[in-house]
Amino acid sequence: xxxxxxxxxxxxxxxxxxxxxxxxxxxxxxxxxxxxxxxxxxxxxxxxxxxxxxxxxxxxxxxxxxxxxxxxxxxxxxxxxxxxxxxxxxxxxxxxxxxxxxxxxxxxxxxxxxxxxxxxxxxxxxxxxxxxxxxxxxxxxxxxxxxxxxxxxxxxxxxxxxxxxxxxxxxxxxxxxxxxxxxxxxxxxxxxxxxxxxxxxxxxxxxxxxxxxxxxxxxxxxxxxxxxxxxxxxxxxxxxxxxxxxxxxxxxxxxxxxxxxxxxxxxxxxxxxxxxxxxxxxxxxxxxxxxxxxxxxxx
Length: 299
Prior knowledge:
Layout: E1 30-36, E2 50-52, E3 55-63, E4 70-71, E5 74-77, E6 114-117, E7 126-129, E8 135-136, E9 141-150, E10 153-159, E11 168-169, E12 172-174, H1 181-193, E13 197-208, E14 213-222, E15 233-240, H2 252-267, E16 273-279, E17 291-298
Parallel strand pairs: 1-4, 9-14, 13-16
Antiparallel strand pairs: 1-3, 2-5, 5-17, 6-7, 7-8, 9-10, 9-12, 10-11, 10-15, 13-14, 16-17
Pfam family, one: Zn_ribbon_Nudix
GO biological process, one term: flavin-containing compound metabolic process
GO molecular function: FAD diphosphatase activity
């Protein structure tokens, strides 16, 4: 259920399940990979071709490796931006904006009026209650979904709700309190495509700082070859790789995910991808191609 808004912090854990190795074609397999994390942010240079991360013990299931436990100490990093204007400047400066804090006029706990200022020891403007002194903190929304492979095609849904009414998307939506990322992705797929799926592995994490969203997309397969439009979809259809409607997709995150998937399939190896989608300043949110994909890391 994705109605109004749009994946890997240094210490974030992406997967807590024990995934089973699989092979959707003869050569594509997945296994546990022990990858690196860090306790404080990394400074990544867009001019470098790779970035080394200090190994710890985080475990992710990543496509394209043999079904055994291995050590993984670095992501490869693309030095070029994806999307329009690939030679443009990188958005590498953190902006300490107020976000939506100035729109919070009343306390969610006691209902008292708020003031908007920077609390001691912090860097951002917050909404602070003038009665109980509690601070309203805003956190990004997590969107989870499935990239479903079936007979060398992918399942897309045509949206029957705003925003992006009538455009195509992977089944995805906001993760709910009390569910895991995989549970949320499975639920959203059922709600939007009436399809029962088995999650196979994580495929992409895409951060969109401008709108406070992070996408986690999983590779999945149909348990049964049945699907139909749910209440939020007007149509569900399987698309061959060359038929994916890239000019009629609902969101930039879908464009990025499906382009990365198509590139991987054509290269004969599925990877795990992380990237930051930065929308071009002054462009409309509905312009799905007005973005750069920065800090693209791939396993």
